Amino acid sequence: MKEYIENIYKLLHSPLVTPYNLLENAKLPNYEYVNFYKEDKVLISEMKCTLDDGNKAIFYYHFDQDDNLQYVYMSQGKQKHCVFNRHLETEKMISKYQKYSSSEKNIAI
Fold it and tell me: The whole model's pTM is what?
């Protein structure tokens, strides 16, 4: 139960990863570039890298005004999909906690 609470807290209050952390990726041999730009009030880090399977991908990390990671998108060719959504991950973790918590109550009865 403690693990669920810790994960929920991190999702609600931690940046998870910072723009500075992503800048460090530019030093890695499988990264071609790390760029930053703004769209409206969102800071976006665009990174092109070679994946373990040899394919290339572009990742887009979206940060809010407080540098908290909100979304990560991955683009390969013409396909782009969300690989992380902070809001959905928080909802999933709360749901898991609630299921675990109610199963613990049922066991105690």
Answer: 0.85
